[in-house]
Amino acid sequence: MFAPLSSGLADTPANPKVSIQISPNTDRATILGSPQLFTGHVLVDMLFTPNEAAKHSAGVVAFSPGARSNWHSHPGGQHLVVTSGTGWVQEWGGEKKQIKAGDVIWTPPGVKHWHGATDKTAMTHYAIQTQVEGKTVNWLEAVTNTQYHTPTSSQ
């Protein structure tokens, strides 16, 4: 998946070869978001997964109008970077909030939440999360239509 580039460093036992790795976008496929994890039409492009040195992963997630994730949490927390459109995010027990292109959202470890597009607009974001004990996400139940259509908080 990754092609190493020369590091210019000498290979010795004390200094093993260190290389930059490039993952060409042609090596990654866009997948349809699983109906067990999402409601509506969602496309996911995994950018990278955790490795020995970096314990985080990232993907680009595109939600069509009305689409959203199930409730879920992240053992190491999650950053979302909204790149286009308008969406919603909600913490369990909290008010639904509007998010827009350019917004960055931090969800602390273990906080139950969901995110997705509004009912009228699409939304795309980068999702970046840290792996803890081999897991980056704990998937939970679907967001009901009643929960999804609850009015947003005033911001």
List the defining traits of the structure above.
mainly beta, Jelly Rolls, eight-stranded antiparallel beta sheet, two-stranded antiparallel sheet, 1 helix
Structural overview:
The protein has 155 residues and is an all-beta fold. It has one domain: Jelly Rolls (Sandwich). 3% of the residues lie in helices and 41% in strands. The protein contains 1 helix and 14 strands; from the N terminus they run E-E-E-E-E-E-E-E-E-E-E-E-E-E-H. Strands 3, 5, 6, 9, 10, 11, 12 and 13 form an 8-stranded antiparallel beta sheet that branches. A two-stranded antiparallel ribbon has the order 1-2. The longest helix has 4 residues. It is globular. The N terminus is likely disordered.
SSE blueprint:
Layout: E1 3-4, E2 21-22, E3 31-32, E4 38-39, E5 42-48, E6 56-63, E7 68-69, E8 72-73, E9 78-91, E10 97-100, E11 104-107, E12 113-117, E13 123-130, E14 138-139, H1 145-148
Antiparallel strand pairs: 1-2, 3-5, 4-7, 5-6, 6-13, 8-14, 9-10, 9-11, 9-12, 9-13
Tell me briefly what this model is:
The protein contains one helix and 14 strands.
